[in-house]
Amino acid sequence: MRFRGQSLSRFFIFASIPLAIFTLVLVIPFARGLYFSFTNWDGFTSDTFVGFDNYVKSFGDQAFWGSLVLTLLYVAASLVLVNVVAFGLALLVTIPLRGVNVLRTAFFVPNLIGGVILGLIWQFIFGQAFPRLAESTGIPIFQENWLLDTTTAFWAMVIVTVWQMSGYMMIIYVTALMSVEKDVLEAAFIDGANNAQTLFFIKLPLMAQAFTISLFLTMRNSFMAYDLNLALTNGNPYRTTELISLHVFKEAFGYGNFATGQAQAIIMFVVIAVAALAQVIISKRMEVQR
Amino acid sequence: MKRAKRINWFFFIFASVLAVFYAFPFVLVLINAFKEKRAVLNDPLGLPVEIRWKNFVDAINKMGYWQSLGNSLIVTIISVTAIIITSSMLAYYLARTKNKFSSVTFLVLVASMIVPFQALMIPFVGFFGQRGINFPQNQFTIAFFYVGFGVALSTFLYHGFISNIPYELDEAAAIDGASPFKTFRKIIFPMLGPVTATVAIINALWIWNDFLLPSVVLSDTDQKTLPLKTFVFYGKYTSDYGLAMAGLLLSVIPILIFFFLMQKRIISGISAGAVK
User: Fold this and answer.
1) Tally of domains in chain B
2) Residue range A88-93: average pLDDT?
3) Does B211 fall in a domain?
4) Cβ contacts (< 8 Å) between B129 and chain A: which residues?
5) Residue limits of the ABC transmembrane type-1 domain (chain A) (predicted)?
6) In chain B, which among 59-118 make CB contacts under 8 A with chain A?
7) ipTM confidence
8) Residue B161 located in a structural domain
9) If you classify domain A55-286 with CATH, what class do you get?
């Protein structure tokens, strides 16, 4: 009994305030959002329960499908490219080169800056600098403003994403590459393994955990990407480059469709949850047990 | 040996070219920030013919630079401090209390990390806005929100570390007559230095750069943070790219200074935070 009393007082001292804030800021709005997605909520009042109407409406909406598919493509492209580039960079900056710290810094710095600022910088590059570069060098792919065409605007977003995120993931891979034990590498060397064999059969399996983390982070960040999308294309041309986040935002605050916007946000959450869970389960299976 | 050296030279040149590509966007902003608007349009890639400091003076005035810089600083400092205090205490409680409640709470916290802000954003505005609780718009309110959104990850990071601190330390302190809070403050918290550094850095970078939350919560211009002000400013002055670039450069400089001062800590903080 005395123990129970003490544990209650410990709860009030240490846990009550953080948990109260967490509940108020995260749990309650989430629960309310879930509830509102089943009503005819207009942002202020919700008087009728409408069942799955908002979800049915969302799935019937072509613009929503478009942005969902676009988001999946964007996530897939970023997942592959960010991690391939990041891993390549990590290999490069773990070679004992001169000035390796300067190189690491250069690759990492884009990550320090928020997506909105990066988006604005690249908006200028695609709109002003590249066309000018094409004029003076004759490289045809830069001639048109990439942001004015749906396909090139999509790839513009992917390029900026790779530029932004690869430095961060590089740090994770560098840490993992350097933490492979020296005696394991020596054993491989004595057994006559060449560099490529050491990389593929020794280092890669031992650093599987780093891949799990990087893939998870890349996926999460690109599913939730909003800032870059807003600053770079704002969904243009004609709402064809709207990722799900921006779409939800515009649906609710732009067009005033609060209930459907919320239903779409919940769909987005479910997609992220399923993808994250699947990714973690698959990656965990591939990790080496030691 | 000679061959290995030559290969290293090749990689060095390759890496340097890549690094130039990575730095190119910033260089472009830098050179154009000093140009007159027609000079930017005529030759965005060339070096400025004359250095035009006036762009910076104008940008500082027109975007309310010092005020928004101050707002960002205050919000970041208050929020990070609050996150460190709340999440280290919560993690201490969860790591030291072995019952169903604490394990369920821990699971909920971990699960909450994949909830995107977009899934709460719409009810959030209604709940805390003028028609709901009607929170005052100031730095403390924003910090309150950031604690709510940041506490899960930070608690998770602290939890892993605290679980490795032997329970005997707590017992020894209790026998010496220290209250639970005093045990935490005098014995446990000082041992958490490395995690606290990681938690501070990860949260500071996130909060400093965050756009979506302040953009839906702050409507009062005087309270707006740097990313918000920069975005509005850029939108207004796309006809004068020299000025717009000066604005972008100004909003990038503080975080770069912070990075170069704390480079080692930031890099090790990020790798420590990710491995957990």
Assistant:
1) 1
2) 88
3) yes
4) none
5) 68-279
6) 86-87, 89-90, 92-94, 96-97, 99, 105, 109, 112, 114-118
7) 0.84
8) yes
9) mainly alpha
